[in-house]
Amino acid sequence: MKILIWIGIIFLVIPLVGALIAFIFGLYVNNPSTHNATAYDSKISNQYYLRDGKVVYVLDGNFFQIGGSPIEGADPDTFNVISQSYAKDSNSVYYNGRRVEGADPSSIQLVTSGINASKEESGYLISGGKVFCYGQMIEGADAASFSYLLGSYAMDKEYLYYYTDVKFSRKAMPEAIKNANERYIRHGEQVIYQGKIISNEASRFKIINDEYAVDEQHVYSHGDVVEDMVADGFTVITPYYRKDKNQAYYFNTPIPESDPSTFKVLNDSVAKDGKHVYYNGYIVDNRTVAEVSRSDASELEKMWKWNSLHLSPTRVILVPTDDVEDITNNFYAYNNEVYSRNNKLVGVEPEDVVILDEDEKIFVRIGYQVFYYNVVVEGADPNTFTVIADRFSKDAKHVYWEVYKVVDADPLTFEYEENLYADENDAGEYYLKRWE
C-alpha cells in the first residue's frame, strides 16, 4: 500500500515540477536582460527597448516566441514611449513599431474617453491637428472636437467614427448600452454593432448575454439577425439550447417539431418535450419521451458508446457504437443498412458501396451514382469513372474537380500536375488553375 501511495505522489509531483520548470524558463527567456535589452519605460509600455544602440520593438514583450525587430530610422537618443503602443523620437511618431505617416512628434495628445471606464489605451491620437486611429489617419476628422467613446468608437462635432473607414453623421450623443460589450454603441435610436447599424429600436434593445440581444421583433447573435428566431419569449436555456414562443433551438438552428412550453434540457446533448426526444437538436426516432429520464440521458451522452445515425436531415436513431461499421468517413453500415451523414440510403446494403480510391476513401459508387464525400457527382458515368489525384476524377466525357465539371479539360488528354485545381468563374463554370 505504501508503495502505491509513493507512486501516486510521484505521478502528482512530476507534472507540478515540469510546470514550475517551464514557468521559470519562460521568465528567463522573456526577461529583457537575457536579450541584452532595456525597456525605455516599462511602467508605460513593455514593447519598446534599447538593444545594442538600436530601438527594438517586441510585441507584448514576448522575446521568447516573437523576438525583437529593430525600428529602422528610430533615434535611440530622443526616443521615448507615449503609451503601450505609441512612441516617438525627434523625427517621427510610431505605433506598434511602425512609423505613423503624417504625425508630428512635437504635437502629441492621447485621446481618452468620458464614458469608457477602461484604463487601457484607446488607440486614438491627435498630432499636428490630425486624428489617428491605431496608427492610421482618419481623413477629415476634426481634431478640435474629437473625443474617444469606447471600443473602437470615437466622435467629433459632426461624425461618429468606427476605426478609420466607417463614419455616421451625428444625430445624437452616442451612449454605451447597459450590459453590452464595447462592440455596441447607441446613437439615438440606432444600435450599432462593430460599425454596422443593426437596429433602429434602441429604446427597446436589450442585451441578453455576450452573444445575444433582442429588440421588439428580432433576436441578434453577435450583431446579426437570427433567421426564424423571434424576440417574443426568447430565452437562453443553456450554452447549447435556446427557445422562443414558437420553438426550441440547438445553438441557432431550429429544432423541428419542438414544443417550447414543454421543452426540457437533460444535458448538453439530450433534451425532450411532450412529443419527442432530441439529440444535438435532431429528433430521436428510436426513443420515446417516457423512456428517457435524466439518468438515461447521461448514458446516451457517452459518445464513445452511442452513435447517432441520420434517417433524414432532421431525424436520427441512437445505436451502440460497437454495432456501427465505418465504410468510409461519410458512409456507415448498421443492421445491414447504409447511412450517410444526412440520411438513410433506402434499399442500399453495405456491399453496394464501392470505394473508388482506397487510400483516401473519398470517392464511392453506389448503384448508378458516384459520390465525392457524401455529395453526388452529377452526371458522372459510373461505368467509366476513375479517380485521378487530389480531388480530380474523370469519366469518358468529363474531367471533374470535387463534384464540378472542368470545362477546359479533356478526359482523353488530361494529366494531373502538382498545384493544379479548378475555380469557378462568374458564369458558374469551373476552369483549371494553378496555385501560385
From TrEMBL:
InterPro entries: DKNYY
TM helices/strands, residue ranges: 7-29
Keywords: Membrane, Transmembrane, Transmembrane helix
Pfam families named among the record's database cross-references: DKNYY
Protein name as it appears in the record: DKNYY domain-containing protein
Organism: Pseudoalteromonas rhizosphaerae
